């Protein structure tokens, strides 16, 4: 595997007239992994992708793709694919035209794979792009994003309008094809739990700041909920940072930062305490709230996580 990072962002910022869309984002995306670029509406996800793919210029800082500034380097541009949620196509383009253009543009294009995806996603090849439903439009992006096999592929909210079957087709093919043809994939989303099983690493943006940059395995299960008789819950949580507490008469529900291994879980359960690892989405919500509360200056959380 190439040791040059797929993407290196150094103090990357983007300001529009009255909005700071991205504020001094610094991080490194190693080659050969699937990253989730997460954040609420307006957090800066699309802006980050546009800057990384040379579709917009930064106000400060830079984005290096495989060691090069992409807008100065044609060969690097050819290694990237960016499927935008608002991808533009010429007015008279049919699905077939869009796929034919992609076949020319992307050096690693796999036509057989594209044909298979078109079939599974039931895309009408002869229909004009502008006549497609929202889900069909997203499917075109999925076919191009996957079949291009670009070394660095960005999918900006790829599932918009897709039904459950089509979303599963996407996730299944992404994982299977990634295993056979390792590359770097960045998926933006605000539906964190839906894509959690696909991701290896999460980057969370809030108001243009990178507030979390951590492997999924560090985040998932880093927050645990305990519920049961108050004293037993407090005993089970001894020494762990408490992120939230709710008392309902004699019952207490605590959310703590920390993992419960099999022995700790068994001991807590023997004392009548229910133990549940929080989902990736809930863990991210709790951890970012906690980091906001404990520091007002440092923006990026790395997770050390208390364990039990
Ligand atoms: N061309 C522009 N001119 C002015 N402001 C812009 C422009 N593009 C984006 N912004 C602003 O920058 C911020 C970040 O926008 P961006 O589209 O990157 O967010 P996002 O995380 O992709 O959001 P969403 O999930 O809603 O797609 C928002 O406040 C947005 O309104």
UniProtKB/TrEMBL annotation:
Tree of life domain: Bacteria
Matches recorded under InterPro entries: AAA+_ATPase (IPR003593), ABC_transporter-like_ATP-bd (IPR003439), P-loop_NTPase (IPR027417)
Xref: PANTHER family: ABC TRANSPORTER, ATP-BINDING PROTEIN, SKFA PEPTIDE EXPORT ATP-BINDING PROTEIN SKFE
One annotated GO molecular function: ATP binding
UniProt protein name: ABC transporter ATP-binding protein
Domain ABC transporter: 7-232
UniProt keywords, alphabetically: ATP-binding, Nucleotide-binding
């Amino acid at each position: 595997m190439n040791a040059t990072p797929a993407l290196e962002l150094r103090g990357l910022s983007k300001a529009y007239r009255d909005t700071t869309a991205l504020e001094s984002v610094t991080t490194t995306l190693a080659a050969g992994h699937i990253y989730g670029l997460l954040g609420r509406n307006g957090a800066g996800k699309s802006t980050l992708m546009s800057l990384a793919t040379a579709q917009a210029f930064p106000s400060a800082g830079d984005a290096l793709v495989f060691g090069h500034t992409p807008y100065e380097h044609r060969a690097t541009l050819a290694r990237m694919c960016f499927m935008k949620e608002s991808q533009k196509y010429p007015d008279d383009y049919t699905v077939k035209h869009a796929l034919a253009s992609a076949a020319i543009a992307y050096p690693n294009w796999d036509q057989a794979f594209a044909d298979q995806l078109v079939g599974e996603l039931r895309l009408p090849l002869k229909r004009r792009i502008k006549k497609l439903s929202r889900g069909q439009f997203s499917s075109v992006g999925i076919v191009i994003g996957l079949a291009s096999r670009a070394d660095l592929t960005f999918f900006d909210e790829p599932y918009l309008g897709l039904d459950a079957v089509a979303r599963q087709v996407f996730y299944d093919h992404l994982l299977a094809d990634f295993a056979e043809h390792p590359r770097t994939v960045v998926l933006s989303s605000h539906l964190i739990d839906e894509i959690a099983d696909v991701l290896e690493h999460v980057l969370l943006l809030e108001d243009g700041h990178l507030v979390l940059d951590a492997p999924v395995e560090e985040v998932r299960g880093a927050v645990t909920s305990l519920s049961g008789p108050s004293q037993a819950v407090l005993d089970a949580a001894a020494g762990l940072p408490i992120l939230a507490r709710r008392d309902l008469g004699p019952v207490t529900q605590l959310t703590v930062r920390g993992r419960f291994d099999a022995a700790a879980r068994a001991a807590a359960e023997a004392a009548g305490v229910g133990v549940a690892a929080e989902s990736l989405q809930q863990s991210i919500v709790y951890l970012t709230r906690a980091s906001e509360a404990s520091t007002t200056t440092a923006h990026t959380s790395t997770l050390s996580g208390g364990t039990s």
